[in-house]
Every structure is written in C-alpha cells, then in structure tokens.
User: Fold asparaginase from Varroa destructor.
Amino acid sequence: MGRDSSVTPATTEAVRNGSDAVSISDENSLCERGYQSKACAFNNLITNEAWLVNPRQAGIVNESRVLVLYTGGTIGMLKDKNGVLKPAPALLEAKIRSFPQLHDAEYAASMFVGCKRPPLVVPYTGSTIRVLYTIYEYRPLLDSSNMTMAEWIRISLDIQKYYTTFDGFVILHGTDTMSYTASALSFLLENLGKSVVLTGSQLPLLEPRSDGRENLLNALLFAGTYIIPEVTLFFNNRLLRGNRTLKYSAACLDAFRSPNMAPLATVGINVNVNWKTVMAPSSLKKFRVHPMLSEEVGILRLFPSITSEIVQAFLAPPIKGVILHTYGAGNGPTAQKGLLAAIQEASDRGVIIVNCSQCPNGHVESAYETGNALTQAGVIPGADMTPEAALAKLSYVLSKKEWSLAIKKEKMQTNLRGELTVINHTLRESKLISAIGKIMNVSSFEELEALKTAILPSILCSIAAKDDCERLEVMRQCGAYLSSYDYDYRTPLHVAVSQGNFAATKYLLKQGASVHMYDRDRRNPLDVAVAHNHYDIIDLLVRCGAHLSLLAETLAEAMNSAACRGDIRRLESFRRAGANFTEKDLSGRTIGHVAAECNQLDVFEYLFKHELYVATTDVYGHTPKDVATILGHQEIQRLIEIRTPRGRTPAYHGSACRSQPPFTDGKGLRLAFLSCTKRSVKFQLISSTFFMQVTSFLRIALL
Assistant:
C-alpha cells in the first residue's frame, strides 16, 4: 500500500532504463532486415539473435511462433556454493538448446541456414504445427517474491509490443506469486485474442528430477497450437484459468489448485480441452493493454478478537479498496459494533470493500446474520473469487478513472474475465447427436463426445454459410463451441467471411469467435476476407483486432502480383487490412517497381491517392521511376515526376516500427538470400536479377 494512486508506465521507466539492456550487438542488423528499428528499441534482454528471420516461403511448413518472457523463478536458478538457489542470468536459453525434449536442433539447422543461433524449435509431437519460440530474459531476473505491480504492467506492455508478431506467449515466473501475476494480467490484457500461459517449476530446470521441462514443453504447445484467449497457468499436466488459481503447496509438484473451477485442459496420453469453459472475447474491439493499476489496496484477514481499532487503522486514508478475508460463507464478528461502524464509515467515504471467504472452496453468501450485517455495512459480496483475483481486480477497477464509484462497485460484482462463477440457464443439449449416435450404435459418453466433435463443426459451418444467425444462436445455447473447426481446420467464421455473410460474421465475433485461428492453408479469417475482397468484413475484422498472418516476403509477393494484374480491388483489400505497402519481395521490388514494369498506370494513381507510394530502390538501386524510364513507360514517369516534386520524400506507410526499407544494400540482400532454403526460391531471385540486368543493358544501349 503506497501513497501514489496508481502504477503507470512512467512508474516503470526507471526499471526499464536502469536494469534492461540488450545483450546482443546485432540490433542494427535486425534493423537493416526491416524487422525492427531503433525507434522500437529493445526493452528486454534477447538471447536469440535470429528471432525473426524468415527461413522460407510460407506454406512449406505450418509453423507458429511463441514469445517466452523469462522473468525469473526457480525454473532457471542454480545453487551457489552454499546450496542456496539463486537466479542465473544468460544461462537458460543456452541450456535449453542442449535438451532434445525442448529443442529440435536438427530441424532448426536444416530450416534456418546461415543463422548462428536460430530460434528454438519444439520437437515433433505429432501435431501438424511446428512451434518456434524465442526467449526474452528480463534483467535483473526476479524472485517472484519481489514481483510488484510495476512488473505486471511491464509484462503486459511487452506482450502488447509483440502481439502481432507472435501467435502466443509463455511467461516463465516464480511460483510464489504466480497466481497474483496471472490474475493481474487477465485484467490488464483487454480483449485478448491469443493464448498467454504462465508456468514455472518447483525444481530448477537443470536438476534431473525437475518438473520444469514438462511444464515448459506443454505451455509452449498450448501457446503455439491452441487458441485459448485467456491468461492461463499450466502446472502438473493441468491448464488452469489464471485468475482462478492459488498456490496450494510449497513442497509438492502439484503446486497449484483451482478450487472453484475445473481445469480448462488436462494433459495425459491425449490433450483434452474443455472448450465450453473457455472464456471468449465478448466485444468487437481490438486487443489493448490498460497500463495502470491502483496501489492503494490491501487484504485484511479477520481473526478472532480482532479489534475495531485495527480495522479502523487499516481502512484509514489513503486506502481506497480492501479485500475483507472473512469466515466461512462470508461471515464476520458482528458483535463488535465498533468494527461494523469502522467498515460503514470507510464505505461511506468511498472505500470499496469486497467480501472474500478464507475457505478456498465455496461461495460468499448472505445466508447468515453475520454475513448479512457486513452487506448492510456496505461490503460487496465477492462470490467465489480467490483473494489473489479479487485484489488484482480491485486494483484494476480502481484505476479506471472514467468509471464512477457506483460503476466500480458494480464491476466488482460482474464477471469480467471468468474470475467468478455465473450460473447460466441454457437450453438442453440437442437431441440430434443422440439420434445419430443411436443409428450408428454409439452409446457411451466418450463415443458420443467424439461424434459431436466430428459433426457439430460441419453443421455450424453449414449454418454460417447460409448467414442464419438464429440457428447459430440455437446451436450456441445447446452448447456448441462456435470456434470449433472442420476437417480443413475452417471455423464457422472462416466460412461466413468467405461467403461475404456480414450478419453471421458480426454475430460470431460478438460471441467470441477467434480472429486468429488458421485453416489448413494457414489463413486466418482476415486473410480469407482479403482473398474475396469483402471490404465491410475486412473493416469489421480489423476493428476486432485481426491482422494479416502472411510473412513479409509472402505478403510482398501477393501485393506485387495484384499490382502486376492491375487488381486495384485486391490492393484496396490489403490496404484496409493494414498491409505494409513498403514490403519488398526477394528481388527488393515493391508494388511501385512491379506496376512500373507492367505499365499499370491505374496502380500508381491508386498509390498516390492513398499516399502509399514510396520511392525505394530494388537490389540494383532502381526506383520505380527508374524502371519506368528504362522501359519507356512515359505516362508513369510523368505521373511520378508530377506527384513527387524534387526535395519531397514520400512518407512510409504501414508498420510504425519500420524506419527504413529492408534489403537496400548488399548486406541486406545477403541476409535475404541466406534466409531462403529452397533452391527454387534462389533460382527465382537469380533469374529475376538476370532479367533486370539484361533489360537495363538493352535500354541503355538503345538510348
């Protein structure tokens, strides 16, 4: 509890500037590759030099990328000469490379040719998706007992910074306060659409009996292969909702429990996900971070003979919110009138007091006189929230300056992130599955569940294709999971988008359908909308936080192909989807270069209309104007001269992190060449280069 009203990014500035340093000297080369700029300076130690190198064309291998934020904890500790566990900086990533259970060195070497330290790769597990991951190590590494609200905000901002770059996130954390961090992140990360998994270990990773290897491996698999848009905690073969957990044991490997909610998933021979319990986004808004928490909160645990003076002192200013840790179903010592008076006085002063039970399992109710007396004194029932979740939620709610006191009290009783139980009255399970099962002589629960998994996605996709929102709602109320996928990994949202069904698309998004799920061709719904030029749906998906999944070079080739055809509609689709029009293909060509080669005047008029034209150079130093001049396309040449007067440098469009076009010198070209592992791609670059050389020579000779 402190004097400052809240923790903000400014509060953490000293931590960032004083303790975080980039451990590599290769930051400039990363900038030259076009992946980062000095304006987006690294705030964390990155121990993996080639973390964003694109090794191949998209489509050759189905991969996902996971960012691991290593904050500290037992998992990376070593014993000193006295046998005391201490953090070991700059060690974890190097050791993981030597563990075949956590890194497929052979795959990395074959796919990342020319990289000194390629990204880490999860070994093959039978899944169709290979998970690549890179580790960010915080400086200094923290024992979780030293974790503060400033670190919670720091973690959330790091996730925000790389949200569109990675498919999922894993946070390595000490176990002592892991539940607090998981609860806080669940509120700070608003409209979350990707998996964020916290994990750690009871024994260091380097010890033979460590539980860290299994915990890390499974956390990576959940973050990289499943879209569970929540902050979760993985420990001892169970994936738990983060804000439902508490540390149960300091000595057992089964250290965490979720007393009032079943696991989201369990890991055995098979991985079983209970999709009905997954908390899906419920608003049509982009992902964002609320970078602020109130520090003026605390937990007051009641005990027999607690005096009113102690309670009054605890509730005195500057406190603004208190979790009252009560007995049983929310009861307190009502015989002490001074105690109730102190609570009433604080509540009247605007202090939000939330009633949480000291019993791990159960629900706060006002069934007893002693519990009802607290409610009458202004105490808010906390339902079945854990103290960790209630404290984090209270800190989050109090930091919302735009909310009135009445709204803040209402929000504390509202289920925001799945932190408390809400009883939903839904329709009975559809009899369709049972009827089909009867015909097929399927009767056991397991067989019926398997049949449901196989049939329901196809039914949902069929309904979505017909734009029938009423039937989708019936299916939802019958328990159907609206983000389930068919044999081609297409979700109902993929189908609705491809058909241009705006109503079904909007309905599915309101019900939490994920905009980040990939089909068999690794296309998310936004990629599908762009492929069909559905502008209204593209705009809707972007508002909901969707972003293109295409790799930079693949995106450049797709846009260049549209420019070559003069396909303005496709270019407009890419623009609405947020594509970076400065992306270059393997020959260093942008849309302008290709449009100049193919004499597509309409494309240039479109680029100038939307201020997308950039006079970048290809691998031979040719700008689009140079290409138009060499090929004798005079109309394009004149248009460029008119629209780009001397001394004017067109602004770059697209990623704010890019301060210069990639591959503008020999080093950049060499890096691009090394990033390609297929001979056909190399041949394409060489043949394109040869063609440009011959064309330039002939034109100069003719002139």
